[in-house]
Amino acid sequence: MESLPNINPIEFELALSPAKIRVMQIVQGAMTVGVGLFSLVVVVLFFTNNDERTSTGDIDVLSSVNTVFSMTIYFGVNYIYKKQFAKASIEKSFSRAFTDRGGKIIASTPAEKYFQVIFTATLIRLALMEGAAFFSLAICLIAVTKGVAQIHIVYILNAMPAAIFFLFSFLTFPTKESILNIFQQKIRQLS
Description:
- The structure is a single chain.
- By secondary structure, the protein is an all-alpha fold.
- It has helices at 9-15, 18-48, 57-84, 87-94, 110-145, 148-151, 160-171, 176-187; strands at residues 98-99, 105-107.
- The chain has a two-stranded antiparallel ribbon.
- Helix 1 (9-15) crosses helix 5 (110-145), helix 2 (18-48) packs parallel to helix 5 (110-145) and helix 5 (110-145) runs antiparallel to helix 7 (160-171).
- It is elongated.
C-alpha cells in the first residue's frame, strides 16, 4: 500500500471549515445534553420519590455490573481511540471514499480525509462513553424509583460514569485549536 499523504498543519487548518467544526460541536453537544437530561430525571425523582422499599439485592448486582462495564469501557475506549490513528487504520480509511448517505463525496483531499479520521475516532470514543453514562444513570433511576438511593446514598455513586462523561465532554469539546492539536499529536506523528 502506498504511503500516507504528507500534509502540513497549515493545509489541514485550511481544510478545517467552520461548518465541519460546528458538526462536531453539535454531535458532542447533543450527546452531552442527552446524558444531562437523563441525569435531571434521576435527580428530580430522587427528591420527589418517597417509596419506603429498601431491598438492595438487585441494585447491588447492577452496581457490580456497572463497575465492571464502565471500567471495561473506559479502559477499552482509549485502546480503540488510539487504534483509529494507527497507520494501518488510516491507510484503510484513505483507500475508501468518504461519502454521505446520498453518495456525495464529503472528503476528497488528504486534509479532508484526515479530518474524517479524527471525527470518526472522536465519535466512536464519545458513543462508547455515552453508553456507559446512560447505563449508570439507568441503575441510579432504578435505585431512586425503588427508594433505595434515598436511604442508601452510596448507590448514587453509580452515576460516576455519567459525571466522567460530562467532564470529558467539556474538556474535549471540539474547537479549531483542539482539532489541530489532535492532528499534530496523532496524525503528524505518522509522517
